[in-house]
Structure formats: structure tokens, C-alpha cells
Write a structure and sequence with these properties.
Oligomer: single chain
Helix content: 40-55%
Radius of gyration: 17 Å
CATH superfamily of the largest domain: CarD-like, C-terminal domain
Strand order of the largest sheet: 4-3-2-1-5
Shape: globular
CATH architecture of the largest domain: Up-down Bundle
Number of domains: 2
Order of helices and strands: EEEEHEHHHHH
CATH topology of the largest domain: Methane Monooxygenase Hydroxylase, Chain G, domain 1
Structural class: alpha+beta
Number of helices: 6
Number of strands: 5
Length: 164
């Protein structure tokens, strides 16, 4: 991986490697990727020697984009168990770093929240799943976060006019 590469960091989303820095932490010098995320202008430092362990991966391909679209348009999964059990199950799905899992969590929670507001814990996962999904699609589709957000809502079947 090099400066200019677009990558996905599980639990945060996609970003661009904008620099590689040497830093000393606890008396040990290490190289770090500086990752800039397109949403919220967040910057992260990721140790170069831990990329596999962290789960840093490349962006999805156009063929995989078609599968993301299908996941977003699919029927929601039935609600099973308490919100607490669903929260932990969804959190594990997001930790996987798999965009298809993030898309399914975003779809399910967006639709659930549209019908009846989800708990505060599930709302945090809703925001996180959408951030993970939207940041990657911004790069894959070369569109703004606002354009991708509107498109994702359209694919899920939620529009601004329905929310009023």
C-alpha cells in the first residue's frame, strides 16, 4: 500500500492513504499510514506492520458494487431477539469489515428506524454502518457523500419525502 491508495478500515470505513509517517510510541519507532476519511474529515494513524491484523483491505470492485446494490434492495431480515442481542450481532457484522454485512445492517436498521425509532445503541450502529458503507461507495462511485447518501436511501426504499 502506498500514498494515494484508497482502502477500507473496518469499523470506520474507506479513506485515502495521504501520508506515511515514522513515529515513536513507547520507545519503539514504527511506520504509520495516515488515513483520511471523506466523511467528517477524520484522520487515522494505522501501524504499517499491523495492516493485516487490523483488517485493512482494498475497495470493492464494480462487480461487487452490483452485489451491494442487491443487498440494499433486498427484503429486511426479520427482527429476532431483544434489541440488545440484535445490537451485539450487528456489531459483530460491522467488525468483520465486510461491506455486504455493513450494507445489510444499514438496510435493516434504516428501515426499522423509519417504521419505529430504534434504541440509542442501535442508532449508533445505524450511523456507523451507514458511514462504513457510504465512505466506500464515495470512492467506488466517484460521487460526493451527499449524492451517495441519497442514492443509498433510494436503494433501501427510504426517501426524504417519506420522512416528513
Amino acid at each position: 500500500m502506498k500514498i494515494g491508495d484508497k482502502v477500507v478500515y473496518p469499523m470506520h470505513g474507506a479513506g485515502e492513504i495521504v501520508d506515511i509517517e515514522e513515529n515513536e510510541v513507547g520507545g519503539v519507532k514504527s511506520s504509520y499510514y495516515i488515513l483520511r476519511l471523506p466523511v467528517g474529515d477524520m484522520k487515522l494513524m494505522l501501524p504499517v506492520d499491523k495492516v493485516e491484523e487490523i483488517g485493512l483491505r482494498e475497495l470493492i470492485t464494480p462487480a461487487q458494487l452490483e452485489k451491494v446494490i442487491k443487498v440494499l434492495q433486498d427484503e429486511s431480515e426479520p427482527l429476532i431477539g431483544s434489541w440488545n442481542k440484535r445490537f451485539h450481532a450487528n456489531l459483530e457484522r460491522l467488525k468483520s469489515g465486510d461491506i455486504f454485512e455493513a450494507a445489510a445492517v444499514a438496510r435493516n436498521l434504516t428501515r426499522q428506524n423509519h417504521k419505529k425509532k430504534v434504541s440509542s445503541g442501535e442508532n449508533k450502529l445505524l450511523d456507523l454502518s451507514r458511514q462504513i458503507l457510504i465512505t466506500e461507495l464515495v470512492y467506488v462511485c466517484d460521487k460526493s457523500p451527499e449524492e451517495i447518501t441519497a442514492w443509498v436511501d433510494e436503494l433501501i426504499g427510504i426517501s426524504d419525502s417519506e420522512e416528513n
